[in-house]
Write a structure and sequence with these properties.
- The complex is a heterodimer.
- The longest helix of chain A has 40 residues.
- In chain A, helix 1 runs parallel beside helix 4.
- In chain A, the strands form 3 sheets. In chain A, strands 1-4-5-11-10-7-6 form a 7-stranded mixed β-sheet, with helices on both faces.
- Chain A is 41% helix and 20% strand.
- Chain A contains 11 helices and 11 strands.
- By secondary structure, chain A is α+β, with helices and mostly antiparallel strands.
- In chain B, strands 28-32-33-37-36-35-34 form a 7-stranded mixed β-sheet. In chain B, strands 3, 4, 5, 6, 9 and 10 form a 6-stranded antiparallel β-sheet that branches. In chain B, strands 12, 14, 15, 22, 23 and 24 form a 6-stranded mixed β-sheet that branches.
- In chain B, a hairpin with a 5-residue loop joins strand 17 and strand 18.
- Chain B is 27% helix and 29% strand.
- Chain B is an alpha+beta fold.
- The chains are: A alpha+beta, B alpha+beta.
- The interface between A and B is large, with 85 and 87 residues.
Chain lengths: 349, 777
């Protein structure tokens, strides 16, 4: 019995010292296994107790269990100390140059035109306008005639057209407006739609591209009026360009609307002054304003072609050039950058 | 439309500040694109060339002596212009003068000769350079007097006149608009012409075949006393308005056209066979050599002015070379006519000519102005050259009819969203020349002035009232009324989702033109004849409507590889195909990946991930072959039985041609993908632990993963079979392939026993052995 007693005593002395002086967590773990593991020294002792008499078992058992608790506590304590010591060193051992770039994340980029187009669609979406798409290959009827641009109308010259047939009946749409007629013909009234997409004109210079994007809008209801056109488009302009921008409407002429208007927003650089630091403002060519879109009350002839009774319903329509808005947003000076598709351009957005 | 302000001021009083005029016009619908201010020319004085000598050291230069008056003296000036002559009066920029182009004149040595100033050209003086080349030759003026006041320059408004406002294509029309805007009176006086006793009808016979084609033909006949040069005031105004001075007859024609908006044409009367003018359709096969010297074939769709024998002008477009007025002309006919706008447009289109006259005629001009314009032209030629004008103006016309339009004020107010006072309505329309004929409760009847051919219906009057009040005067409201139900557009929605997916997978979005060249099509092995052709392309670059996007994106990827190691690029767009007589447009996405040897598998992984995110399931790949694609690495993509796209690598030979490494691409038809996409169904994650075994199987080399799956078959406890890796080569023996797969077992309602899974593995292994003669490693 006393042999076991001595064994416990000896174990106590050596174990606690070893644990308290363990140099790292691996060593500490080795002691845990050595003393408390399945075949550990103390575990063996505890196991051997079962063979003893009750009295002896009680006394030695008490001692052995006390030692177990001490060893456990000691392991825990030293474990904490070692951890604290290890974490104390991480500032040095795990130092990283925070100015060094991270691993390149594989994020792609939406084309700036798409970004602007979606933003426009979303703003009009919040105003209750749904997306409606129509084909790019169109007939003369939908692209011109139904929009109050009959054969021989001079307005056809301002929309130089790509034709797909010798008889000039099939063409690439010059605007998204043919979709207006199709929306009127197929959708129930009242109607609020935006018509986004590619359009084509036979034109190429620093501000024109043979293909470009438009977002067109159409609202038809019984009580629609010019004040609502102004309100809707002003709301759009402030959402898109910023709440502090001013908006103005100028009379214009489009065959498919009457009255027709062009909307300008105040120049973000000179704020309508036309000059910056005594020099003519370059952003707006010193005019103080930027032309953004065309709009107007839908012409009765167009309503009729859409199968809508102009005596009962009125509407307004508008068309925005997506490229121009894109160029304004990022100060892009030449429209052809947008179609260069140079990866070094695309990655910037 | 260029409007020199001195000219406009002849007809209406203008505000003191140009900006006020500009603003009033712009905010009522006449956009001012630009304002030209007369150049400031301090230090530029009148001089006279005393002598011209060759420069001793330069062939193309001369050394001149120029007298610039008592104050500035005689000075030596080196000059490079070929037109400098002794005796000419010129504009001399003295040393220190600052020119509009920013140049400051200094005394300098030019090839060893001191030059004390510069003889200026129109360009250098910032004057419209429609006229002379070389130095500007001016009239006689006191030597040394400042040139600025003599330059003839004017403040010029460049107005963008909308196509409906033909009336504004003349200074008088603009004056009317300005008068209405600013509450001023317009000052137009009747032209004063002294007629001879002989009647014009004795000199010329005019016949109009069809008055529908030519509602009015007005002509004056003049006998000239030689054709002098136009005076400086006239050429200055013409130049300021953008015309090149030619001779008095032509210049007066242009002047009157620019003033009245009525095109004028002058014929040499003695060149008109039979002294006759017939307005008729051209006969098939007739020809005319127009003023530009080009012979043109005519047909009956073209309206011509003819003499007894032949056409002498394409009506409203251009006259013939033979009948043109020259220095020898003795008698002229001044034509001031009104033609059918469509016919003029057709004639111009057919001849490929767009003249100032055409841009006016085609818009529909006031038939009432032919007569005052003819008289104005006669008056000017008479005054400037002493010509005699034969008594009476020849005038053949349809009866003039007044047009009326009704304005319902209820409609007006509803349209604009606020009430415009009745008083205002009357004031505005009256200022614009509309005459109130009658009133019946809210409906007003107006007579439309003849110069407003564009006003046809009540909505036109609504526009007139709105624009004259100014759009800013109307309130701004959000739409009231019922909110329509939202409309779904699945294709647009999917397209957006597809774009976001590829962007998040590291792709850049490209936007390329929808057309390609025949050469590009050919290079990609596509038949030009399978494409829809643009009949009037801008260039050979853009002749075919593309049927796919690969040929647009591959060259961009190749270009991109010059700047980056790997390229991920995509575009979504419509492609265009013919189906019998119909054209079909399909929206597709094509993505290209150039990223070394693993590009194909990487792209397949991307495609699978993307499709799964759209809710497209049961995706299958079957070997296929596309134009210029790799014969062993091309597949059609299906969802169930529906073909939705393809995935391929470019043929290595083709890649090499482009100087690029491996390039893979995928194309999805978005419409079919959208149809294949299903709403996702939720399945709860398994509650009970699952068991996973890896299995390596050696099979014949061309055995596919799909065949492997088929051989294993299905079991309700087998939840997934994943592909881990495949291997061919050493240690396998010839024509063998090893595939490692991972099988996942799970029971829905209990913990699966290891023994059950092991039994199933035995079953699957036996199937593999039986069906594929597989060895298990």
């Amino acid at each position: 019995m006393s042999a076991l007693k001595d064994k416990i005593k000896a174990l106590k002395e050596s174990a606690l010292i070893r644990i308290e002086t363990a140099r790292n967590s691996e060593e500490l773990e080795s002691y845990r296994v050595k003393y408390l593991g399945r075949k550990g020294q103390l575990t063996e002792i505890l196991r051997s107790l079962t063979e003893m008499e009750k009295k002896e078992r009680a006394e030695l058992g008490k001692r052995a269990n006390e030692l177990k608790v001490r060893i456990e506590n000691s392991l825990k304590k030293r474990g904490k100390e070692l951890a604290a010591e290890r974490f104390r060193k991480v500032e040095l051992s795990e130092w990283i140059d925070v100015t060094e770039p991270g691993f390149k994340a594989g994020m792609g980029h939406l084309h700036p035109i798409s970004q602007v187009l979606y933003e426009m669609i979303d703003i009009f979406g919040r105003l209750g306008f749904s997306v409606f798409e129509s084909p790019e290959v169109e007939s003369d009827f939908y692209n011109f005639q139904a929009l109050n641009i009959p054969k021989g109308h001079p307005a056809r010259d301002t929309q130089d057209t790509f034709y797909l047939s010798k008889d000039e009946q099939l063409l690439l749409r010059t605007h998204t407006s043919p979709g207006q007629i199709k929306a009127m013909k197929t959708l129930p009234l009242p109607l609020r739609v935006v018509l986004p997409g590619r359009v084509y004109r036979r034109d190429s210079d620093p501000t024109h591209s043979p293909m470009f994007f438009q977002v067109e809008g159409l609202l038809i209801d019984e009580q629609t009026n010019f004040a609502q056109l102004k309100g809707t488009l002003s709301t759009f302009a402030r959402e898109f360009f910023g709440q502090r921008r001013k908006v103005r409407f100028r009379p214009h002429h489009f065959p498919f609307t009457e009255p027709s208007a062009e909307m300008d927003v105040s120049c973000g650089v000179c704020r309508t002054a036309g000059r910056v630091g005594g020099v003519p403002c370059r952003a707006c060519h010193a005019s103080g304003w930027l032309e953004i879109m065309g709009a107007g009350m839908v012409h009765p002839t167009v309503l009729k072609y859409g199968g809508v009774d102009p005596k009962k319903y009125r509407g307004f329509a508008f068309g925005i050039g997506v490229e121009r808005a894109t160029m304004l947003r990022w100060n892009i000076n030449d429209i052809h950058h947008l179609y260069s598709n140079d990866v070094r351009f695309l990655e910037q957005f | 439309m260029k409007i020199p302000l001195s000219w406009l001021r002849d007809y209406v009083a203008l505000p003191a500040k140009v900006a006020d005029l500009e603003d009033a016009l712009r905010m009522s619908g006449t956009e001012i694109e630009r304002i030209y201010h007369p150049p400031k020319l301090p230090g530029v004085v009148v001089g006279r060339v005393l002598s011209v000598k060759k420069h001793p050291n330069a062939d193309k230069l001369t050394v001149t002596m120029v007298d610039t008056g008592a104050k500035h003296g005689k000075r030596t000036i080196v000059c490079g212009a070929p037109n400098v002559r002794k005796g000419l009066y010129v504009a001399v920029a003295l040393p220190g003068a600052k020119l509009p182009n920013g140049a400051v004149i200094k005394e300098v040595k030019v090839r060893g000769v001191r030059s004390e100033g510069m003889i200026a050209s129109e360009d250098e003086l910032g004057l419209s350079s429609e006229g002379q080349h070389g130095v500007l030759v001016i009239e006689k003026h006191p030597l040394g007097s400042p040139f600025e006041k003599l330059s003839g320059a004017d403040t010029i408004l460049d107005a963008e006149v909308t196509p409906n406002r033909a009336d504004e294509l003349g200074v008088i029309g603009i004056a009317r608009e300005v008068a209405a805007l600013l509450g001023k009176k317009i000052k137009v006086r009747a032209p004063k012409v002294k007629f001879t006793k002989v009647g014009a009808g004795k000199k010329l016979h005019v016949e109009v075949k069809d008055q529908k084609d030519c509602p009015r033909y007005t002509a004056a006949v003049l006998s000239l006393k030689g054709l002098k040069d136009s005076p400086r005031w006239l050429t200055d105004r013409l130049k300021n308005a953008g015309y090149r001075p030619i001779n008095l007859a032509v210049d007066v024609g242009n002047y009157v056209m620019h003033e009245w908006g009525q095109p004028i044409h002058a014929f040499d009367l003695d060149k008109l066979s039979g002294r006759k003018i017939v307005v008729r359709r051209a006969r098939a096969g007739e020809r005319i050599v127009t003023l530009d010297g080009i012979e043109r074939r005519l047909d009956s769709s073209t309206l011509v002015i003819a003499d007894e024998k032949k056409p002498v002008a394409i009506a409203g477009v251009m006259g013939s070379l033979d009948s043109a007025v020259s220095v020898k002309t003795k008698n002229i006919v001044i034509e001031s006519a009104n033609f059918d706008p469509l016919l003029v447009r057709k004639g111009a289109k057919k001849a490929g000519l767009r003249t100032e006259a055409v841009t006016r005629f085609e818009k529909g001009i006031d038939p009432e102005m032919t007569e005052p314009a003819a008289l104005r032209a006669a008056e000017l030629i008479q005054r400037l050259s002493g010509a005699s004008v034969y008594q009476g103006i020849i005038d053949i016309r349809v009866e003039s009819k007044s047009r009326t339009v009704l304005l319902d004020q209820v409609y007006l107010n509803e349209m604009l969203g606020q009430k415009v006072p009745d008083r205002e309505v009357r004031r505005i329309l009256s200022a614009l020349g509309f005459k109130l004929l009658s009133t019946e409760s809210d409906v007003l009847e107006f007579e439309v002035p003849s110069f407003r051919q564009d006003v046809r219906a009540s909505h036109d009057l609504v526009e007139e009232i709105a624009r004259m009040r100014g759009f800013d005067s109307f309130q701004s409201l959000l739409p009231s009324g019922r909110m329509p139900a939202p409309i779904a557009s699945p294709l647009f929605t999917l397209e957006r989702q597809v774009k976001q997916a590829f962007v998040s997978l590291g792709f850049l979005e490209a936007v390329t033109f929808s057309f390609i060249s025949k050469e590009r099509a050919k290079r990609f092995g596509l038949k030009a004849s399978a494409h829809i052709l643009i009949t009037n392309p801008l260039s050979a670059e853009h002749e075919l409507m593309r049927t796919e996007l690969v040929s647009s994106l591959v060259p961009l990827a190749v270009e991109g590889l010059k700047h980056k190691d790997s390229i991920r690029l995509f575009e979504t767009a419509n492609v265009y195909t013919k189906s019998g007589r119909k054209t079909v447009e399909r929206r597709v996405i094509t993505a290209v990946l150039a990223a070394g040897d693993d590009a194909w598998k990487t792209l397949k992984g991307i495609l699978e991930a993307a499709l799964s995110s759209f809710g497209v399931e049961s995706v299958k790949f079957t070997p296929a072959q596309f134009s210029k694609s790799h014969p062993g690495r091309s597949a059609k993509v299906y969802s169930g039985r529906r073909a939705i796209g393809h995935l391929a690598e470019l043929h290595p030979e083709f890649s090499e041609e482009w100087g690029a490494g491996r390039i893979s691409y995928l194309t999805l038809d978005l419409e079919s993908t959208s149809t294949a996409a299903k709403e996702k169904e939720f399945t709860p994650p398994p509650v009970f632990p699952s068991i996973t075994y890896d299995l390596s199987v050696v099979v014949k080399e061309r055995t596919t993963f799909e065949e492997l799956l088929l051989a294993i078959g299905s079991h309700k406890l087998l939840k997934r079979v994943e592909f881990v890796e495949s291997y061919t080569g050493k240690g396998l023996g010839r024509n063998k392939r090893s595939m490692t797969i991972r099988l996942n077992f799970n029971a829905d309602k209990r913990t699966l026993e290891e023994e059950e899974a092991k039994d199933l593995m035995e079953l699957f292994i036996s199937r593999l052995k039986e069906k594929l003669q597989a060895d298990i490693r």
